[in-house]
Amino acid sequence: MQFIKPDINIDFLGQRKIAHLLSGVLIILAIILLIFRGGPNYGVDFSGGILVQVRFNHSITPDDIRGSLKSIALEDSIIQEFGEEGKFEYLIRVNRTDIELSGLSDKVKNSLDSMFGEANVEVRRVEMVGPKVGKDLREKALFAIFYALLFMVIYISGRFEYKWTMSIIMAASLAFGVYIISAIGMSIIWLIAVALLITIGLCWSLRLEYALGAIIALFHDVIITIGAFALTNREVTLTVIAALLTIVGYSLNDTIVVFDRIRENNRRSRGRNFAKVINQSINETLSRTLLTSATTLTVVASLFILGGGVIHDFAFALSVGILVGTYSSIYVASPVLLIWAGQSLEGGTASIKRRGKGS
To answer: Which of helix, strand or coil describes residue 247?
Structure first.
């Protein structure tokens, strides 16, 4: 049984302008959404505050829960229903850190019991994160994503392109740049944005074409996934950061498989049009790409449907990331090589130099 025939020949690069337009629109919309909403919707992990998870044995409206919390001055809480149908679970989020955590679980339980009856309410967890801790966690999470992108690019430059010297120069230059920017006192968001621009500029100036394609594709995947969270107003928590780091690794693995086939075919096809080499390579790896993505999505869909409300955002992030990552390895990362070579689909020969380990 073959879903993808061995001799398939889809003109992926012929569709690259439409794909680039689509990617550009999605990225712009993601940025506009983030600006309009004042940044990502950070969870208690990052913003600080109190999170209480409760379960009822019958349906309750958020307004009823909010009304029952007036007696303990938590009527300004954000109430969110989640979980499987028939479970009636709710998250009570309080964006305040001036509340004593000790005994809070009992206070919430007593307040809800007095309104709905003791046998109808179960307090499942109570968490509190201070504002300073939340800020530190947020900065460390952003740095984790940034350094994951950076070190993967450095690895591609050294191991994949045999340019260890250039990759070390890039790492040192970027570390110096980040140090200078930090000394100025720039905010973490702007620091990472500037550092990413420096990374792209270094890849271009040091002629790290494969690394450049990879970093653009990874940035594309992360920003669109975060945009999907902004669109659906989902919270960004530590679990979601773990999902984003997983997406970075998954997407890069997909991209490397395609890049490796491009490099092999480019060696064998001396004098051949580079665009045709790229198209051939994408088609040859298409079966592997789609089967890997489909099997992974099956697992993630199972997590989303059966895993319960606590894991929904994690599974949602992975679902979006796998789809976008598969798309970017074909329509974003590979066309960067063609742009670098400065070729059209109509003619010309492969212009990315073939390298050996001595390069």
So the answer is: helix
If one counts every other C-beta atom within 10 angstroms of the C-beta of residue 75, the result is: 12
Q: Which of 129, 144, 175 is the last residue of a domain?
A: 129
Q: Is the pLDDT of residue 262 over 70?
A: yes
What pLDDT score does 356 carry? 41
Q: Do 177 and 198 touch, CB atoms closer than 8 A?
A: yes
Give yes or no: residues 67 and 113 share one domain. Answer: yes
- What's the count of helices (H) and strands (E) in the chain, helices before strands? 13, 4
Distance CA 196, CA 283 (A): 31
At residue 299, the pLDDT reads 92
Average pLDDT over residues 28-39: 87
Provide the pLDDT for residue 105: 66
Q: How crowded is the C-beta side of 234, counted as CA atoms within 13 Å?
A: 23
Q: Is residue 356 part of a domain?
A: no
CATH of the domain at 161: 1.20.1640.10
Q: Are residues 150 and 115 in the same domain?
A: no
Question: What H or E segment, with its residue span, contains residue 127?
Answer: strand 121-129
137-152 per-position pLDDT tens digit? 777 777 777 777 777 7
The reply to whether 283 falls in a domain is yes
**Spatial CA neighbour of 112 closest among 55, 158, 154, 39:** 55
Same domain, 89 and 221: no
Q: What percent of the chain has pLDDT over 90?
A: 10
- Give domain status of residue 91, yes or no: yes
Across the range 162-190, mean pLDDT stands at: 73
CB atoms within 10 A of CB 237: 21
For 260, the domain range is 13-42+133-341
pLDDT at 340 over 60: yes
Contacts of residue 347, Cβ cutoff 8 Å, sequence gap at least 6: 273
Residue 85's SS3 state is coil
Nearest Cα residue to 220 out of 24, 36, 21: 24
Residues 6+ apart with CB under 8 A from 140: none
Split into its structural domains, the chain has a count of: 2
Answer yes or no: do 31 and 167 share one domain. yes
User: Helix, strand, coil % (nearest 5) of the chain?
Assistant: 65, 10, 25
Q: Is residue 22 part of a domain?
A: yes
Quickly tell me which residue has 């009570």 as its tokens. 92
